[in-house]
Amino acid sequence: MLGRFYLIVDSHHWLERLCPQGLRLAQLRIKDKTPSELTDEISRSLAVARAQGCTLVINDHWQTAIDTGAEWLHLGQEDLDTVDIKAVRNAGLKLGLSTHTEEELDRALIYDPDYVALGPIFPARGKQVDYAPQGIARLGSWKARLSCPLIAIGGIRLEHADEIYAAGADSICVITDVLADADPEDRCRKWVEAAGSARP
């Protein structure tokens, strides 16, 4: 069972700060690191997450995820062009996939994902994307096609949480709403509380 609140971070330092606030599902998204730096950061992050009881999803770097013994992997559509999906599955990794269009959802379902992310729900604040906002209403139609959890992502603020859960999202993924807040620990705690009180 995936956590109802899903945070994207770029280092183990964030996990050290926010796991004690109740964070139980996070994605490690790392850019611009050397292979050795990447391996070190993923290994450190996995160690922190495991010690804190947090599920950690590794973004993009499927081979390093296998090599470091990660349990979860997240891939974008472009990553599907180069990933060795057989190696990923043989390593026992669970797989989450990004989708933005009906065509991308069709493609994602071929891989029997363990969750599907739909976004951006609103204009993205932490990442440049090439897709128009999906809107909350689209979550219901996406959810109807899935037998796995649906993750809502993109420009979401805490104030949107109740409506997005009610529309069909199993989990809400954010970056900026927590990491750019003046008090990330407090904002994370509030997200954890909102996720815990949301109706399944």
What does this molecule look like?
This protein has helices at residues 12-18, 35-52, 62-67, 85-90, 102-110, 138-144, 161-167, 176-179, 184-197; strands at 5-9, 25-28, 55-59, 72-75, 94-99, 115-118, 150-153, 171-174. It is an alpha/beta fold and 200 residues long. Strand 1, helix 1 and strand 2 (25-28) form a beta-alpha-beta unit. Helix 1 packs parallel to helix 2 (35-52). The longest helix has 18 residues, at 35-52. The model has no long low-confidence stretch (mean pLDDT 95).
Quick overview:
It contains nine helices and eight strands. The chain has helices at residues 12-18, 35-52, 62-67, 85-90, 102-110, 138-144, 161-167, 176-179, 184-197; strands at 5-9, 25-28, 55-59, 72-75, 94-99, 115-118, 150-153, 171-174. Helix 1 packs parallel to helix 2 (35-52).
Can you lay out the helices and strands and say which pair or pack?
Blueprint: E1 5-9, H1 12-18, E2 25-28, H2 35-52, E3 55-59, H3 62-67, E4 72-75, H4 85-90, E5 94-99, H5 102-110, E6 115-118, H6 138-144, E7 150-153, H7 161-167, E8 171-174, H8 176-179, H9 184-197
Parallel strand pairs: 1-2, 1-8, 2-3, 3-4, 4-5, 5-6, 6-7, 7-8
Write out key terms for the chains shown:
9 helices; eight-stranded parallel beta barrel; globular; 200 residues; alpha/beta; 18% strand
Rg, rounded, reads 16 Å
Sheet having the most strands? 8 strands, parallel, barrel
Shape: globular
Structural class: alpha/beta
Mean pLDDT: 95
Low-confidence stretches: none
Q: How is the largest sheet built, in terms of strand order?
A: 1-2-3-4-5-6-7-8
Percent of residues in β-strands: 15-25%
Distance between the termini: 12 Å
Helix content: 25-40%
Number of strands: 8
